[in-house]
Amino acid sequence: MSDLYDRHRNVLPDWLALYYEDPLELTHGEGRYVWDADGNRYLDFFGGILTTMTAHALPEVTKAVSEQAGRILHSSTLYLNRSMVELAERIAQLSGIPNPRVFFTTSGTEANDTALLLATTYRRSNTILAMRNSYHGRSFSAVGITGNRSWSPTSLSPLQTLYVHGGVRTRGPFAELSDPEFIAACVADLRDLLGHARPPAALIAEPIQGVGGFTSPPDGLYAAFRQVLQEQGILWIADEVQTGWGRTGEHFWGWQAHGQSGPPDMLTFAKGIGNGASVGGVVARAEIMNCLDANSISTFGGTQITMAAGLANLNYLLEHDLQGNARRVGGLLIERLRGVAAQLPGVREVRGRGLMIGVELVRPGTDEADPRAASAVLEAAREGGLLIGKGGGHNTSALRIAPPLSLTVAEAEEGATILERALRSTF
What is the per-residue DSSP string for 259-291? Predict the structure, then answer.
C-alpha cells in the first residue's frame, strides 16, 4: 500500500484528503461489506460518503448498468434519452414540488451550482442566505455559500452570502432555549438580517447538515423561515444531497420535517440515487427552471448508463421499503449508541434520524471539541473491521454513521459493538 500511497502523493493534490494513517484501498464490496487490497473485510458504515445507498454490488443495479453498457454509454442531452425521461418522471412525482421540472448533473456540487444559477437569475439578485455550519460542495459558488470553515478554502465568491442561525440545535447563542423558543429566536434573527440586506435570491439549507456532523434544527424551523421568505418572494432551496431518498427514515425528503408551509421551490439531490454512479440534479418549479434565456446542455448529466443505474436503484429502494428499514434499524442503532454514550464522558451527543447518525466527541469534563479523539476512534473502528466517517463544524469532532439503507439488525449490532469498543479504547 505504501507504493500506491507514494504514487498518490506524487501526482494528486496535497489537499485531497485521505482517511487513516495507513490509507486504505478498497477493491470490492458486497451488500454492506467491503474488502481492501490486503483481503481484510470491513462493515461499511459510511457508504462512500453516503453514495452507496442500497448495497454494494447490488445485482439489480449491476445488471442494469451492464446491459446498458452493452448498448450505448452516452449521447449527451442533445438527443432524446428514454431512461433520463423515465427517471425524471419518477423524481418529479416523488419531489412534492408542484409543476416540477428536473435537470440532471453529475454531482451534488453541480446540482447546487445549478440551483444557485436558477435562483439568482430568477430573482435578479446575487445575495444568498445560507446556514452556519453548512456545506454545499466544492465549486467556486458552492464554496462561497459554505458556512463550515474547514471546507471553505477562499473568501472570494461571485455571491454575497449572509449566514443565518438555526442549523445546529445544541450549540450557539440559542442552544439553551426550548424548541419553540429556539425557532422563534432564529426567525427573529432572520427578520433582523433581512432588514439590513438587499433582497436575497434564496435560502439554501440542508435539512440535516451532512459534513457539519449530522446536526439539525427542531422540526418546523424551515417552515417558519418559509413564511418569512414568502413575504419577500425569496426562494427556498432544500439541499437533499445527503438527506434524500428516505435515509432519515421518518421522511422521504428531509424538507418534509419542515413542510407545514409547503414544499421548497427547489430541491437538489445526488449521492445515493446513483448508488455510486455519478448522478445529481435539481427539481424546481417550471417557472424557475425555465427562467434561463441562453442555451444550455449537459454533456455528462443524465447519461444512459447513469440513468440506468439510478432507475434500477430507485426501483429497488421503493420496492423493498428501504425508508422503512432505515427508520426501524436506524432507530435501534441510535438507541444502542445512546446507551453506550451515557457511560462515556467524552461523548457529548448522539444525534440523527434513521441511518444518518452523528456522535459528537469532546474532551471529558468540557464542551470543547476533541478532533484527536475522533481520529483515534476512526482508526480503532477500522482495526475492529468497521468503516465510519467524521465531520463537524467544531474541529471535525463528530463521527458520521451512514450505512447502506438495507442494513440488517444483526449488522447494526455488529457495527455498534465494534464502535463501542473503539470508543471505550479512546476514553
Answer: GGG---SEEEE-GGGGBTB--EEEEEEHHHHTT
Q: What pLDDT, on the 0 to 100 scale, is given for residue 180?
A: 98
- Percentage of residues in the chain with pLDDT exceeding 70? 100
Dihedral in degrees, nearest 10, Cα atoms 337, 338, 344, 350: 90
Q: Are the C-beta atoms of residues 256 and 94 closer than 8 Å to each other? A: no
CB atoms within 10 A of CB 193: 15
Residue 288 has which C-alpha cell? 424557475
CB contact at 8 A, 51 and 241: no
Q: Is 78 exposed, middle or buried (0-12, 13-18, 19+ CB in 10 A)?
A: exposed
Q: Give the three cell numbers for residue 340.
A: 453506550
How distant is the alpha carbon of residue 247 from its chain centre?
10
- Grid coordinates representing 303 are 447519461
**369-397 CB burial, b ≥16 within 10 A, e <16:** bbbebbbbbbbbbbebebbbbbbbbbbbb
Q: Render pLDDT for 240-253 as a digit per residue (tens, 0 to 9).
A: 999 999 999 999 99
Residue 388 dihedral angles phi and psi, to the nearest 5°: -130, 175
Residue tagged 434519452 (cell numbers): 81
Residue 408 burial (CB count, 10 A):
13
Pairing of strands 41-44, 33-36: antiparallel
Is the pTM higher than 0.70?
yes
Distance CA 128, CA 235 (A): 10
Which pLDDT tens digit goes with each residue over 169-201?
A: 999 999 999 999 999 999 999 999 999 999 999
* pLDDT of amino acid 1: 56
